[in-house]
Amino acid sequence: MRCLTIATGAVVRKNILIPSEYKFRKYFDDNSKESQLPNIINNIINIEIPKYVKKGTIVILGVGPPKPIYCNAIKKAGGIALDLGSRIDTICGYITRGKNKGERIII
């Protein structure tokens, strides 16, 4: 997520990509038909979070309704979850809400 580094100066150590909500996939050039539920969620909470999240790790989320599931797993692993919601889309140059939905912006 180079966009987060540019926008905030943060060092991003690991990206875990989650399939977009179906209605937003075209904005992310995501042609996958795979859903978050249940396979992706199970993989992330049982494999990815335990592997990469250690005590004090800050995890930035923008995952929609499954947020409590991910946040709970991050907390159990000792991490700190920050949910930016759809704002993470905007930080990365995608407008997925409001009247300009579907447009790209440059940060």
Task: Describe the overall structure.
The protein has helices spanning 2-8, 36-52, 67-76, 87-91; strands at residues 58-61, 80-83. The chain is mostly helical. It has one domain. A two-stranded parallel ribbon has the order 1-2. α2 runs parallel beside α3. The relative contact order is 0.17. The mean pLDDT is 77.
Query: Unreliable stretches, pLDDT < 50, 5 or more residues?
Result: none
The amount of helix comes to 25-40%
For the record, the count of structural domains works out to: 1
State mean pLDDT (0 to 100 scale): 77
Radius of gyration: 14 Å
**Largest sheet entry:** 2 strands, parallel
Q: Give the terminus-to-terminus CA distance.
A: 13 Å
N-to-C series of helices and strands = HHEHEH
Helical stretch tally: 4
Our estimate of the beta-strand percent is 5-15%
Strand order, main sheet: write it out.
Answer: 1-2
Q: What is the total tally of β strands? A: 2
Structural class, by secondary structure, is mainly alpha
Overall body shape:
globular
